[in-house]
Amino acid sequence: MDSPSLPPLGTPARLAVGIVSAGRVGVALGVALERVGHVVGAATARSEASRDRLARHLPGARIASPAEVARSSELIVLAVPDSALSDVIRELVDSGAVHSGHIVVHTAGAFGADVLRPIHSLGAVVAAIHPAMTFAGTPDDAEHFDGCGWGVTAPDEIGQAVGESLVLETGGRPVRIEEAQRPLYHAALAHGSNHLVTLIADALLALEAVIGLPSVEGAPGQDAHGAGSELYSPRGHSDRPLESQEESLDPDALASRLLGPLVRVSLENALASGGAFLTGPVMRG
Prior knowledge:
The chain is of the alpha/beta class. The chain folds into two domains: 16-177, Rossmann fold (3-Layer(aba) Sandwich); 186-284, no CATH class. The chain contains ten helices and eight strands. Strand 1, helix 1 (24-35) and strand 2 (39-43) form a beta-alpha-beta unit. Mean pLDDT is 86; it is low at 1-11 and 218-238.
């Protein structure tokens, strides 16, 4: 395959795209790139889940080895787990499948562009482009790129410009992250995302336990009928329709209804003003 020539900066070229591998991020990014005119022609898909995902969302892409993906592509997306990235890069370099004229990007959060140095030394344009987003493997995953922030790191301005252009094409917002700051960048995102999920899960479990407790006649907070609240009153009288009463008996749904609005507003306040909106015992000491 002849070396593809790079387009002038700022000109969105239609590229033949190859994806290594067809995980949640890789397929979602492939779908987003196809929506703006690029063509995903090949991808690696070792697991049955990856093969099914590829067939559903990128049916025009054939399954191939990493080297075959590279040889048939102009833009190579390395969307493998962080722990596998170095081995995949070494495999591509040893195969002779990457060369000057290729664009090679990876989506790993913890690594910058240094890990791509063996490919960059061959004359390829390289960049690390990491979406600050979580993906569930659902059909609407590609929609999450709209307005999504991306950490972009490259060894030179050409790679930076190409990486940022790809991000902009997906509807994302590129943010330049220096190589030395990449580990802290990734740790901050993991801390905010993973700990938030754990915190909410714990709070929901606690609320479900409270809501699921049987009503006690005359307990504090109950009225004369033994009703604990308007939301949950399995023994009390309610004028609400039967469907609404049945829904109110589900502790899971009620816990989400109680916690959801509070968490959403708290998150928006925290993003806007940091810890200035802390309330309750945390502020009182």
